[in-house]
Write a structure and sequence with these properties.
- With 52 residues, this protein is mainly alpha-helical.
- 42% of the residues lie in helices and 0% in strands.
- It starts with 9 loop residues before the first helix and ends in a 7-residue tail after the last helix.
């Protein structure tokens, strides 16, 4: 699952994770990854035409 948001504070991220867990179940911490990317990287990551 991929979730794209604005930059979140630690508190906002914690609240989001808690809300998602209450809706869809517990996350596996070993498989959870949180990244912050810049606009150029973010745009190319979500543009299937840039995947090669």
């Amino acid at each position: 699952m991929l979730i794209r948001t604005n930059t979140l504070s630690v508190d906002q991220r914690t609240k989001l994770q808690a809300e998602l867990q209450s809706k869809i179940g517990k996350f596996d911490a070993a498989k959870t990854q949180i990244d912050t990317v810049g606009q150029t990287t973010g745009n190319s990551s979500f543009n299937p035409h840039s995947w090669r």
